[in-house]
Amino acid sequence: MTALSYSPRRDRVSRRQQRYELIRPLISLGRSHSAQAQSPSETARCKETIYCFGEFQFSPHRHLLLRRALPMKLGSRALDLLHLLIDHPGVVVSKSDLIRFAWPDTFVDESNLKVNISGLRAVLGETQEGLPHIATVPGRGYKFVAQVLREELKAVPAKPAPIEPRLDSFPAARTLHGREDELTALSYRLRSKGFVTITGHAGVGKSVLASELGRRLAGEFEGGACFVDLTTISDARLIGAAIAASLGANGSVESFIPATVDLLGRGRRLIVLDGCEHLAQAIGAAIDRLRDALPDLLVLCTSRSNLGCLAESVYRLLPPHQPIHTALRV
Hints:
The chain is of the alpha/beta class. It has helices at about 10-35, 40-45, 75-85, 95-100, 110-125, 180-195, 205-215, 240-245, 255-265, 280-295, and strands at about 1-5, 45-55, 55-60, 65, 70, 95, 135, 140-145, 150-155, 195-200, 225-230, 270-275, 295-305, 315, 325-330. The chain has a six-stranded antiparallel sheet with strand order 1-9-2-3-4-5, sandwiched between helices. Strands 11-12-13-10-14-15 form a six-stranded mixed sheet, with helices on both faces. The model is unreliable at about 5-15, about 25-45 and about 155-165 (pLDDT under 50).
């Protein structure tokens, strides 16, 4: 293994074991994906680069990021951006170079880059020094700041998986207590109305309830369900791009509707939009545009207040062990 930044020599046996532990999850995964045999010459020519940093292992060949041997959910564009940044640790990569690498031969708005970088930062968290893995260099671009180790492996390449919509992006499941009545009522409301906003005070459990409902209903839709966290979006102009990016689409601010429609097709889908109160009017307008283009799309939102859309059904969520909800408008 070659350290991309200088480190003094240590005990060889200890370092060899440490390297193996870092890349073992990807080695095991590679064996499970190598069902199709290839000739010895093809295998000998094939090399795979694995990047290791902190608790993460990244394989550009498989478009796969692992943390503690568990796959992280990121769109294909975000992984392309990570590939270019991690291949040049400590070096400022310009915004134009990042856009050309992730969106070759395609014109996209710079907002797409900002949304995907924001998503990468959310997944990667902070380094051991308490800094973001990806630093912004004002007026120039972005820089990957963590120390990176790179391993070159001889391996049988996995067959590339087709690019599919990212419709399995829900946060980790949490235990719900005393909310079965609400889940039943919401399930019926969403199926019949198609667009429901769960409102209520902060901390009442709107996000957990919406996430659980999305998981339960995902099997009813041929494309499953997608969870979009909008709490990190502060600019109303980025809402459409954030939704498109969460689904794996390439659309710019202006073209997110065509990009999302192309990706989802005309089948029934469910999108859960979490944390809409800070940009309620803009998010409501984006939802109206999406549902006009995709009549079979179901939308479930969480917000401290309603979004003000004509087709919106508002579900007021009260704290547990209080009288059943009141719908403001059905």
